[in-house]
């Protein structure tokens, strides 16, 4: 029976959440897009639906999230989680707040929380302000994100224009007192008519308190990490009866490819590290792609030895990204890169790559859709929030990594490939 239904605003966010839930040993099933058929009998306790609505139009985001909610309710879920990025990636128009408000309305709840913290990845919220490691969000590399540049660190200020209800804060001084105190504060804020509560958390014990205080809420929202304690809490209170069997790592072909469409600071370092190891590589330039199409990269790929896990990347420094955006427009440059990497993924699979590592949230969405992957079982985690996922594409069994741009260590690409090589 489905205990928790989660809706994620992008594909890497969904695998991140699914990976953290699966740490507890529970079976987590991830769907890419709203499943077309009704829920089956093989449902997992935790069902996650990955959408690609972080930067979609508001109408599209609301419609997709509503369809996902309906499917999860049909699957029997009584509690729901709205997952967005731990760096609160959004524009003043949304989509984090409007989707949360729509879900609240549908579920008939008057209050929810916003807990973006992911301390293992350096995201912490203190006094409503989001930090990325030591830097406030608006001084972190997120200020230069190609699609959702984050120019303010205060989550209350970011959220307020996105919602119609009132926004409040449960700060660290309350969270540090533990779940009972936090529950009281939330009730107090509810009595004052505060519908949207930003909740501080700076370490995993804070997240435990937040999850404990909020585990009965019909709707929670946040980054992935605040959901991590939920399986354990549900086991303790009997909501979940047992830990299901973990998925078996399937036998996979040896070929691999790495596709990086993230322009994040960490992805730049990961690409540089992987190149320094002598990986065969092809750099995509959106301006050249716009003029000449993808035949050059696809021909190059066809000539590669996939046992050497070649790298195809558009990852570049902010100045280079801005230069191509100035020529093509932000959305157009992004779409050209995403479409090219999606075409590379299909070609790589057809050439025998059974392990495909993708860097970038939007990029992952484009690649997964192109590969026709509808459902994944969650496997071992390479880095916090980045698991291998097992699925079928066409008629081929493949393993996929969908890595959010800033996640993972510098050695991520080689770490990921060697994890599945291990006996
Ligand atoms: P992240 O997880 O780092 O946010 P995304 O894939 O979500 O990565 O977003 C990066 C966006 O930037 C994508 O739309 C991608 O196509 C685009 N992009 C990547 N490289 C370039 C580039 N060199 N020039 C312009 N846009 C780029």
How are the SSEs placed, and which strands pair?
Blueprint: E1 4-8, H1 11-22, E2 28-32, E3 46-50, H2 58-74, E4 79-83, H3 96-107, E5 112-115, E6 123-126, E7 129-132, E8 135-136, H4 155-159, E9 166-170, H5 172-175, H6 179-191, E10 194-199, H7 204-214, E11 219-222, H8 230-236, E12 255-260, H9 265-276, E13 281-283, H10 286-292, H11 295-302, E14 311-313, H12 318-328, H13 330-351, E15 353-359, H14 361-371, E16 375-383, E17 386-393, E18 396-403, H15 412-421
Helix pairs in contact: 2-3, 6-7, 10-13, 11-13, 12-13, 13-14
This protein binds adenosine-5'-diphosphate.
Residues 145-147, 261-264, 267, 286, 314, 316, 320-321, 324-325, 333-334, 337-338, 360-363, 404-405 line the site of adenosine-5'-diphosphate.
Characterise the protein shown here:
- This protein is of the alpha/beta class and 423 residues long.
- The protein has 2 domains: 4-236, Putative sugar-binding, N-terminal domain (Rossmann fold, 3-Layer(aba) Sandwich); 255-419, Molybdenum Cofactor Biosythetic Enzyme, Chain A, CATH 3.40.980.
- The protein has 15 helices and 18 strands.
- The chain has helices at 11-22, 58-74, 96-107, 155-159, 172-175, 179-191, 204-214, 230-236, 265-276, 286-292, 295-302, 318-328, 330-351, 361-371, 412-421, and strands at residues 4-8, 28-32, 46-50, 79-83, 112-115, 123-126, 129-132, 135-136, 166-170, 194-199, 219-222, 255-260, 281-283, 311-313, 353-359, 375-383, 386-393, 396-403.
- The strands form 2 sheets. The chain has a 15-stranded mixed β-sheet, sandwiched between helices.
- A hairpin with a 2-residue loop joins strand 17 (386-393) and strand 18.
- The longest helix has 22 residues, at 330-351.
- The radius of gyration is 21 Å and the shape is globular.
């Amino acid at each position: 029976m489905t205990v928790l239904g989660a809706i994620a605003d992008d594909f890497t966010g969904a695998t991140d959440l699914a990976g953290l839930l699966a740490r507890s040993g529970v079976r987590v099933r991830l769907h890419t897009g709203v499943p077309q058929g009704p829920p089956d009998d093989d449902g997992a306790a935790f069902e996650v639906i990955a959408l690609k609505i972080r930067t979609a139009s508001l109408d599209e985001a609301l419609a997709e999230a509503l369809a996902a909610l309906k499917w999860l309710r049909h699957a029997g879920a009584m509690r729901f989680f709205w997952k967005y990025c731990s760096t609160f990636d959004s524009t003043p128009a949304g989509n984090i707040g409007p989707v949360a408000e729509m879900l609240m309305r549908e579920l008939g709840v008057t209050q929810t929380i916003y807990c973006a913290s992911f301390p293992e990845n350096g995201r912490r919220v203190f006094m409503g302000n989001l930090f990325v490691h030591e830097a406030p969000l608006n001084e972190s590399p997120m200020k230069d994100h190609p699609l959702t540049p984050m120019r303010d660190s205060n989550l209350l200020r970011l959220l307020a224009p996105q919602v119609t209800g009132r926004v409040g804060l449960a700060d660290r001084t309350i969270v540090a007192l533990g779940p009972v105190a936090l529950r009281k504060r939330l009730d107090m804020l509810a009595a004052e008519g505060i519908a949207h509560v930003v909740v501080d958390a700076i370490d995993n014990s804070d997240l435990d308190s937040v999850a404990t205080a909020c585990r009965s809420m019909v709707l929670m929202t946040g980054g992935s990490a605040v959901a991590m304690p939920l399986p354990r809490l549900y086991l303790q209170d009997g909501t979940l009866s047992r830990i299901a069997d973990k998925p078996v790592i399937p036998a996979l072909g040896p070929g691999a490819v790495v596709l990086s469409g993230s322009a994040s600071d960490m992805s730049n370092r990961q690409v540089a590290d992987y190149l320094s190891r002598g990986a065969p590589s092809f750099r995509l330039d959106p301006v050249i792609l716009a003029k000449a199409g993808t035949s050059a990269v696809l021909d190059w790929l066809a000539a590669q030895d996939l046992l050497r896990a070649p790298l195809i990347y558009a990852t570049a420094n902010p100045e280079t990204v801005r230069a191509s955006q100035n020529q093509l427009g932000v959305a157009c440059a992004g779409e050209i890169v995403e479409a090219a990497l999606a075409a590379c993924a299909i070609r790589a699979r057809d050439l025998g790559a059974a392990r495909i590592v993708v860097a970038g949230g939007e990029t992952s969405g484009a690649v997964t859709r192109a590969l026709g992957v509808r459902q994944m079982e969650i496997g071992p985690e390479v880095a916090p929030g980045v698991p291998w996922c097992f699925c079928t594409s066409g008629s081929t069994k493949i393993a996929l990594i969908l890595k959010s741009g800033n996640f993972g260590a510098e050695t991520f690409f080689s770490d990921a490939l060697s994890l599945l090589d291990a006996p």
